[in-house]
């Protein structure tokens, strides 16, 4: 597409009132030292305790800071707002020493009281955080003085520091939360991060400005502050070809939301480059709500999983840029049970048909199976946008080959998260980041996480016991055996249809200097501190 054609198309879309289209950047809309990032979907809010969307996390990391930071290798824990920490011999008490030079965007100094408030709001039932479990079995959090916080646990929690490095552990301002009420993270956010909130227009764009006073960035960044870039604009562009055009024509300088079909064009363009990193665990799957009629039968679920062609998805939809998934997490991740590799459910349409026949589901004249007068027609919820639309349609086609009529209903991300917390659907599409298999299992399969993020309604006493056993273990053998038991149990029950494992790939202008992409929660740009133009 030529630049002229691109501009004409954008103008036409704007004239039609397409709120989600990428509109031309007019004079004065950006500072000279500004970047625009296009992405597929928006978050429902920017509250660290209530948003589980990558779209929320990638902005929250720029708006705020955490006690500790995760190194690029996804293993090492480094300082953040805390300069150091100690752990008691029984593993139940963490004592953090804080920096004494941190301020919020409004200039107010951050102290241990802010840390205590943030953690306690996170775990407060009134907050209704879907990620409360990540904070661990908290007994109390106490400010010993302005720069010392004692984090007391009821039991050891081996992943505490990792969880505190995530966006859910961002330190927030009590006065800001109380002033905004239900609009916290919707109409504003007063954080300590390298960028400050300017304006959010849901499903359109988010504008951030540089925090000129910022100088406490994590040591994993080459630049610890202030940020090089004065202004960052995040634009929502659902259509993948439009996102690609935005990068190709310079309307967007960087994004990790390029369609797989366009990566070869990016690589061939001398004005663009692709940053890639392998230290990424991000998996796409479709889950079953296992107590809904039809998909409440594990034999039916196993047949449905067998009907899906993961290799075709990675090859035909993703242009060979992803790895077909048969496991719920990468088999390279820590805590994965390698002894289970040979037991994973693989594509086998003939066996899928045999299982459905055996279970008493008979094909009708239209080819769709029914039993006792009820059609095998599960309703699947998904996110609007090109990625999930194509995935759902591909799976829908695969399932029709075995007589299953999967119905699809897609929602904008600002609505979808609420819809996915209901009991209205039978199946749902989701993708998620993780560092260890144990983290993923704790996220999705704990009974207390129903209805979200445990959208499958998987409530099992053995699962809960093994997750607790592994998470509180002080030796690797106990940890591994606990998580292995859960891996085997949920895979045998065919609770998900795994689709593919996604690597981190960022398209960017060569006008920007190369940098290290981070994989924490899929937020490749992390805090944006090392983003800068080549001079």
Sequence stretches where pLDDT stays below 50 over 5 or more residues:
1-28
- The CATH superfamily title of the largest domain: Dipeptide-binding Protein, Domain 3
- In CATH, the architecture of the largest domain is Roll
Kindly state the mean pLDDT as a whole number? 92
* Strand content range: 15-25%
Whole-number tally of structural domains: 3
- Strand order in space, largest sheet: 14-21-13-20-18-19
Number of strands: 22
Broad CATH class of the largest domain: Alpha Beta
Which fold name fills CATH's third level, the topology of the largest domain? Dipeptide-binding Protein, domain 3
Largest sheet: 6 strands, mixed
Number of helices: 15
In angstroms, what is the radius of gyration? 23 Å
Helix share bin: 25-40%
Principal-axis shape equals globular
Distance between the termini: 29 Å
Label the structural class: alpha+beta
What features would you describe in this structure?
- The protein has helices at 3-15, 54-63, 112-123, 160-164, 174-180, 240-248, 263-268, 298-307, 310-317, 349-358, 386-400, 413-419, 437-445, 461-471, 476-492; strands at residues 34-39, 68-70, 77-79, 82-87, 93-98, 138-145, 148-153, 195-201, 205-210, 231-236, 254-255, 272-277, 282-288, 323-324, 362-363, 369-371, 374-375, 379-383, 407-411, 427-433, 496-501, 504-509.
- With 535 residues, it is α+β, with helices and mostly antiparallel strands.
- It folds into 3 domains: 3-64 and 175-278 and 505-522, 3-Layer(aba) Sandwich (D-Maltodextrin-Binding Protein, domain 2), CATH 3.40.190; 68-173, Dipeptide-binding Protein, Domain 1 (Dipeptide-binding Protein, domain 1); 282-501, Roll (Dipeptide-binding Protein, domain 3).
- The strands form 6 sheets. The chain has a 6-stranded mixed sheet with strand order 14-21-13-20-18-19.
- Helix 8 (298-307) runs antiparallel to helix 10 and helix 13 (437-445) packs across helix 15.
- The protein starts with a helix and ends in a 26-residue tail after the last strand.
- The model is unreliable at 1-28 (pLDDT under 50).
């Amino acid at each position: 597409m030529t630049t002229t054609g691109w501009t004409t198309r954008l103008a036409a879309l704007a004239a039609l009132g397409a709120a989600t289209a990428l509109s031309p950047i007019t004079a004065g809309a950006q500072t000279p030292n500004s970047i625009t990032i296009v992405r597929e979907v928006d978050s429902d809010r920017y509250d660290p305790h209530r948003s589980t969307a990558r779209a929320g996390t990638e902005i929250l990391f720029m708006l705020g800071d955490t006690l500790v930071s995760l190194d690029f290798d996804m293993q090492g824990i480094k300082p953040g707002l805390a300069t150091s920490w100690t752990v008691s011999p029984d593993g139940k008490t963490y004592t953090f020493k804080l920096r004494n030079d941190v301020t919020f965007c409004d200039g107010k100094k951050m102290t241990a009281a802010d840390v205590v408030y943030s953690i306690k709001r996170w775990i407060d039932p009134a907050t209704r955080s879907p990620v409360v479990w990540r904070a661990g079995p908290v007994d109390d959090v106490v400010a010993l003085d302005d720069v010392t916080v004692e984090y007391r646990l009821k039991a050891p929690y081996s992943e505490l520091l990792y969880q505190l490095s995530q966006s859910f552990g961002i330190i927030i301002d009590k006065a800001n939360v109380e002033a905004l009420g239900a609009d916290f993270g919707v109409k504003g956010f007063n954080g300590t991060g390298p960028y400050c909130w300017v304006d959010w227009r849901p499903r359109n764009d988010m504008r951030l400005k540089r925090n000129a006073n910022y100088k406490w960035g994590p040591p994993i960044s080459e630049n610890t502050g202030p940020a090089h870039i004065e202004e960052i604009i995040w634009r929502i562009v659902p259509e993948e070809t439009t996102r690609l055009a935005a990068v190709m024509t310079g309307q967007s300088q960087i994004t990790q939301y390029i369609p797989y079909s366009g990566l070869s064009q990016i690589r061939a363009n001398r004005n663009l480059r692709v940053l890639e990193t392998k230290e990424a665990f991000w998996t796409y799957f479709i889950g079953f709500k296992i107590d809904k009629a039809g998909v409440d039968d594990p034999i039916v679920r196993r047949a449905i999983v067998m009907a899906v062609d993961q290799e075709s998805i990675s090859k035909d939809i993703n242009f060979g840029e992803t790895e077909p998934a048969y496991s719920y997490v990468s088999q390279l991740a820590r805590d994965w049970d390698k002894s289970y590799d040979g037991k994973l459910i693989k594509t086998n349409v003939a066996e899928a048909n045999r299982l459905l026949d055996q279970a008493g589901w008979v094909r009708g004249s239209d080819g769709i199976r029914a039993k006792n007068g009820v059609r095998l027609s599960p309703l699947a919820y998904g996110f609007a946008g090109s990625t999930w639309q194509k995935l759902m349609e591909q799976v829908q086609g695969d399932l029709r080959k075995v007589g299953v009529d999967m119905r699809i209903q897609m929602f904008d991300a600002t609505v979808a998260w609420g819809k996915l917390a209901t009991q209205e659907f039978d199946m749902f599409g989701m993708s998620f980041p993780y560092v260890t298999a144990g983290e993923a299992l704790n996220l999705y399969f704990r009974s207390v996480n129903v209805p979200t993020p445990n959208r499958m309604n998987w409530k099992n006493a053995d699962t809960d016991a093994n997750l607790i056993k592994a998470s509180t273990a002080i030796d690797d053998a106990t940890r591994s055996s606990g998580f292995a038991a859960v891996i085997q149990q949920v895979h045998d029950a065919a609770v998900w249809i795994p689709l593919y494992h996604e690597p981190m790939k960022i398209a960017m202008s060569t006008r920007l200097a190369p940098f290290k992409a981070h994989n924490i929660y899929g937020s490749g740009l992390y805090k944006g501190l090392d983003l800068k133009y080549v001079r």
